[in-house]
């Protein structure tokens, strides 16, 4: 028996070519799985600091981080703002690349991908002109913490204080001009600074489950509150939690209209008369006593 009995040399060349294509495709998929997917997962995750491990979240699902108990971190010494260290600058560089570079650019020259659409434009850290709040270490730390009203610069107070310190020192390093020391200002800032408690965290799916369980325990409003109520389950949840409305019909009207739609009330409720609100208040108080 010979190979030629099963096909011609041309047939075998075609088969070999098809096999090569399949092997190359499998190799490409393996590279994608090993290199690209972990990178996408890490890039989509919220920043947790350079030393914080990433949780096992599944395919790009950053909302399902494992539950963690809140804690009070070690006291933060803001006097670290007075000096740069290689480790502090490297930490600042990592954070800057993730949260600042899209606007300020990788080198801090106000040339990030989003810079052209911002008015006023983002800060150019390489130049000593135009700094609204100053460019000393305490000034920059406070700007990072509070943001700049009237601009696209939001508050980054959700970042740990150590990260904001690292960011401030790294941003200073981008400009080769002299920065004021601000020792006295840092001392005053440190006196009133307290470490912020890290809150408890739970996966979004667990939070939704608990909200549903909590809402299911609240009795239905029935027809109480018509025509002010738009979403009865949401209004019942708000009425059971809030105490502001219980002071009287006027307090109910003010609280309901102030948060209309978020609390389940209709925006048209603002046009109701004082008599309507007295009636609605009575219905809600009766519902509350029954529940």
What attributes characterize this protein structure?
mainly alpha; Cytochrome Bc1 Complex, Chain D, domain 2; 47% helix; 0% strand; flat
Task: Report the strand count.
Answer: 0
**pLDDT averaged residue by residue:** 81
> What is the 3D form?
flat
How widely separated are the two ends? 90 Å
Give unreliable regions as ranges.
Answer: 39-60
Strand content: under 5%
CATH topology (fold) name of the domain at 78-191? Cytochrome Bc1 Complex, Chain D, domain 2
Number of helices: 10
> What is the CATH C-level name of the domain at 78-191?
Mainly Alpha
Question: Which structural class do you get from the secondary structure elements?
Answer: mainly alpha
What is the radius of gyration?
A: 30 Å
Order of H and E elements: HHHHHHHHHH
Main sheet record: none
| Helical fraction | 40-55%
Q: Mind explaining what this structure looks like?
A:
The protein is mainly alpha-helical. It is 47% helix and 0% strand. Among the domains are: 114 residues, Cytochrome c-like domain (Cytochrome Bc1 Complex, Chain D, domain 2); 71 residues, no CATH class. The protein has 10 helices and no strands. α4 crosses α5. It is flat, with a radius of gyration of 30 Å.
């Amino acid at each position: 028996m010979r190979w030629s009995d099963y096909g011609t040399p041309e047939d075998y060349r075609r088969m070999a070519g098809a096999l090569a294509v399949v092997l190359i495709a499998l190799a490409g998929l393996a590279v994608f799985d090993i290199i690209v997917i972990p990178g996408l997962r890490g890039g989509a995750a919220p920043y947790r600091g350079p030393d914080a491990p990433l949780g096992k979240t599944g395919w790009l699902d950053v909302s399902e981080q494992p539950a963690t108990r809140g804690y009070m971190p070690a006291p933060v010494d803001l006097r670290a703002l007075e000096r740069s260290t290689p480790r502090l600058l490297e930490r600042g560089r990592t954070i800057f690349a993730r949260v600042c570079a899209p606007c300020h650019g990788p080198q801090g020259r106000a040339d990030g991908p989003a810079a052209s659409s911002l008015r006023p434009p983002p800060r150019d850290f390489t130049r000593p002109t135009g700094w609204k709040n100053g460019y000393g270490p305490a000034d920059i730390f406070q700007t990072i913490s509070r943001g700049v009203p009237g601009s696209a610069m939001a508050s980054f107070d959700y970042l740990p204080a150590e990260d904001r310190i690292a960011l401030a020192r790294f941003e200073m390093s981008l400009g080769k001009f002299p920065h004021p020391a601000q020792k006295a200002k840092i001392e005053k800032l440190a006196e009133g600074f307290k470490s912020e408690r890290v809150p408890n965290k739970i996966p979004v799916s667990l939070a939704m489950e608990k909200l549903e369980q909590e809402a299911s325990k609240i009795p239905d409003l029935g027809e109480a509150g018509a025509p002010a109520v738009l979403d009865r389950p949401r209004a019942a949840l708000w009425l059971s939690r809030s105490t502001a409305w219980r002071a009287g019909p006027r307090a109910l009207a003010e609280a309901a209209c102030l948060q209309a739609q978020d609390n389940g009330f209709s925006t048209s409720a603002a046009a109701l008369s004082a008599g309507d609100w007295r009636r609605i208040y009575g219905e809600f108080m009766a519902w509350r006593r029954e529940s």
